[in-house]
Amino acid sequence: MREFFRWANPLPLLLASACLLLAGNIEASPRLPVAKNVRSVASGASQLAEFQNWPRGSAPLDVGKRVADHFLARPHANPTGHIIYPEVCAWYGALTFARESDDQKLASGLAQRFEPLFGAEANLVPEPNHVDNTVFGSVPLELYIQTKDARYLTMGQRMADAQWEPPKSNTGKAKEYHDRGLTKQTRLWIDDMYMITAVQSQAYRATNDRKYIERAAKEMVFYLDKLQRLNGLFYHAPDAPFYWGRGNGWVAAGMTELLRSLPADNPDRPRILQGYERMMSTLRYYQADSGMWRQLINDPQSWPESSSTAMFTFAMISGVKNGWLDARLYAPCARKGWLALVSHLDQNANLGEVCEGTNKNSDRQFYLDRKRLKGDLHGQAALLWCATALLRS
After folding, report:
1. What are the residues whose beta carbons fall under 8 Å from the beta carbon of 223, sequence distance 6 or more?
2. Cβ-count burial of 336 within 10 angstroms (0-12 exposed, 13-18 middle, 19+ buried)?
3. Phi/psi class of residue 216: alpha, beta or left (left: φ > 0; alpha: ψ in -120 to 50)?
């Protein structure tokens, strides 16, 4: 996986946007970002109306079950010698779906899948030495939340704590970040905004120890302040000035996971909510009539891509249900996104049109030419997150 700003008066933003457009700057924002917390004025019943009466074959309970069962039947994906993050994200998604759907058989199967990792297949457990590896801790932590088996807590908490241990060297960026209260694994890559957030949020949910969620919040604010563009989106990298779909999807999903559990009195919550709302506002503008988002979000010539669509849909479903977003504006977007995703699901519960693993690149055509995969776990995972979110009360 390679894989800044408040406007109190809209006039400066309109003038700035016009100048950017005249200059041909692709970063120009298509709409005013929200400047304050948005709360739905709709009743609870009407908030959920868009999430009911699904067409045949598209009900979240049915779709999630198919995708989760398909995941359970797949072997481990360990091309590097250990389980890698797309499987972790799908496993976490299947577990949360099992919990929300009260599917005890599925939950038991997902726990049994983990059991060999305590013994004969312990070599498949990654070392928590990188964000892509440390996120593995999300799975045992979710298993602990569901089963209260202390073995899961020990493993997952060890990984979450390792992420904030002091670096071995007394010099360098890792030491600088650690001294600021951040993780030594900080890279300022946009996908970190999910990988770090997910495991620390899970550790908080499992232990109720606020240090974990406070770590995640501080890290998220640092990334937002450094990386979020004027229009609310994120470049794939400073030297890859493209709004790559899945890269932005990791950000949207990371902020969503964090906001779900971040206490209301946390001092970083307003800043994170502001970043989330600004991003959602621009994403709503760029959603295609089909319900999909594109490989390059603001490029109408790029192809509709499923993993980013699922991540953005998950973020909007959650925003509507938690009252972070105006249901009248965002519930229709979320419904369209979900139905578009289901239309790309084949009879074997494989989601199509998923971008292959993608390193950063300075060439637009590089992104347009990426392979479109079917059944890739980046897409399967985010589809399960959506099904779970739709089932949550």
Report:
1. 188, 190, 192, 193
2. buried
3. alpha
Assign residue 375 a region (left: φ > 0; alpha: ψ between -120 and 50; beta: otherwise).
left
**Residue 29, in any domain of the structure:** no
Q: Which helix (H) or strand (E) holds 272?
A: helix 269-286
Please state the separation of Cα 237 from the chain's center in Å.
Answer: 17
Q: Residue 189 domain-assigned?
A: yes
**Residues 29, 14: Cα–Cα separation, whole Å:** 9
Q: Pairing mode, if any, of strands 304-305 and 293-294?
A: antiparallel
pLDDT digits (tens, 9 = 90+) for 68-124: 999 999 999 877 899 999 999 999 999 999 999 999 999 999 999 999 999 999 999
Enter the tokens of residue 59: 């009900």
Q: How far is CA 272 from the centre of its chain?
A: 14
CA angle 387, 389, 393 (to 5 degrees): 120
Residue 32 per-residue DSSP state: P
**Tens digit of each residue's pLDDT (9 = 90 or more) over 274-300:** 999 999 999 999 999 999 999 999 999
In a domain, 25, yes or no: no
Residue 9 lies in a domain: no
Report how many domains make up the chain: 1
The domain containing residue 325 runs over which residues?
37-391
Residue 33 · residue 232 · CB < 8 Å: yes
Smallest Cα–Cα separation from 136: which of 82, 210, 175, 183?
Answer: 82
Q: Is the CB of residue 387 less than 8 Å from the CB of residue 341?
A: no
Angle 154-82-211 (CA atoms, 0-180°, nearest 5)? 35
Q: Is 274 left (phi over 0), alpha (psi -120 to 50) or beta?
A: alpha
Please tell me the chain's helix, strand, coil percentages from 3-state DSSP, rounded to the nearest 5: 60, 5, 40
Q: Where residue 232 sits, what CATH number does that domain have?
A: 1.50.10.10
Phi, psi of 382, rounded to the nearest 5 degrees: -65, -30
The mean pLDDT value of the chain amounts to 90
**CA separation for the pair 224, 4 (Å, rounded):** 8
Q: 393: pLDDT confidence band, cut at 50, 70 and 90?
A: confident
Distance, in Å, from the CA atom of 223 to the CA atom of 251, rounded to the nearest integer, reads 10
